[in-house]
UniProtKB/TrEMBL annotation:
MF-aspect GO terms: FAD binding; heme binding; metal ion binding; nitric oxide dioxygenase NAD(P)H activity; oxygen binding
A GO biological process held by the record: nitric oxide catabolic process
Reactions that this protein is recorded to catalyse: 2 nitric oxide + NADPH + 2 O2 = 2 nitrate + NADP(+) + H(+); 2 nitric oxide + NADH + 2 O2 = 2 nitrate + NAD(+) + H(+)
E.C. number(s) listed in UniProt: 1.14.12.17
Keyword Manganese on entry: no
Keyword Nucleotidyltransferase found: no
Keywords: Detoxification, FAD, Flavoprotein, Heme, Iron, Metal-binding, NAD, NADP, Oxidoreductase
Lineage of origin: Eukaryota, Viridiplantae, Chlorophyta, core chlorophytes, Ulvophyceae
Protein's recorded name: nitric oxide dioxygenase
Residue ranges constituting the Globin domain according to the UniProt record: 4-141
Amino acid sequence: MSRALAPSTLSIIQATSPWLKEHAEEVTRCFYKRMFDANPEVRPMFNPSHQATGRQQRALAGAILAYAAHIAELSVLGDAVELIAYKHASLGVQEEHYPIVGEHLLAAIDEVLGESSSQEILDAWGQAYNLLAGILIEREGSIYEEHEVRHGWRGFREFRVTRRVEESANITSFHLRPVEGDGLAAHLPGQYITLKAPAHVTGGQTTMRNYSLSQAPGAPFYRISVKRERLPAKPDGVVSNWLHDHIGDDHILEVGPPCGEFVLDAASEASGPLVFLSGGVGITPVLSMLHAVATHAKHREVHFIHATHNGNTHAFGDEVNRLAASHGRVKTHIFYEEPTDEDRELGRFDTEGRVDRAFLETHLRDVSGEFYLCGPRGFMATVREALLDLGADETRLHLEAFGPLESL
């Protein structure tokens, strides 16, 4: 398949991009409505909460605009393509799904353009879509093959809950072992697995969710650590509440193999410092990284910085301290935004407030290393901006955003 568009097609894409920028979310709202009405079989691949809040529509709009902006130089989009391909593979997206998306995306562009639409415009955007679809289909196919070679399966497999641990007031861990088959191949630190929730959970259809693996790579079980989502004026986290309220020992869950590009190469011979910055449940993937570092990278200077609300919501504190002590070169720093009197009396945290530029400038003498960020969008945006301002190399900033990919 050709990896370039004709000059005439590029001209049309570039000429219509300003219009698309103005109407992008209108197009994506129209797209999702048309697709879900005509092809309800694809609904399980999408989080209804993200649809209801508009995050999915904004994320798709941003992705389309980024594609249009860089369509003459697709190599710029390599990292984004990798992220999307892994996300698609985790949800079981197949080649036959792409024509469905293409049909409804072009129909949405046509509908929103109205009288300004033309067959020439639709053909150009159709060619652009097919080019990107081909790139993603090829990459996703290789990921499925990697799953079979590394983990021995693709799709979903039954796992049994063997242990449930209340890690904090709002985070619960579930230990999972395969119902049949041998042990588990080690995941890469930072990866996630996919759970398929049965139809009764959402009232009519199966749905899928990604959850980071929080245990050491190579353990004989998977551990996911799930935050109960209760957001004012927004849909509750349907699947997270189902797990918290109904899932315990001996329950059987359908699980997809480890996936994701937010990973740490703990065996790297690089000597620069490693800096992990997490907020709330964003601790889960970087905790797996810390496990890997404690075993395979004792030569590295490590900073583990975590922010949470207070002692009630602080998960894995003892585990982090044990790993830090076993490594010997890990410096931890805990932020509580609103500590209780008991938190202060017991000295459970280091700093009251939020992670900011002043703290990073004071505590990170060397910004030449690798940074791994995971947490709420506001947290990551603030930390990323501060690090760049302090001279960190943007290519060494690695971010994991839970939910749809939106620009920071």
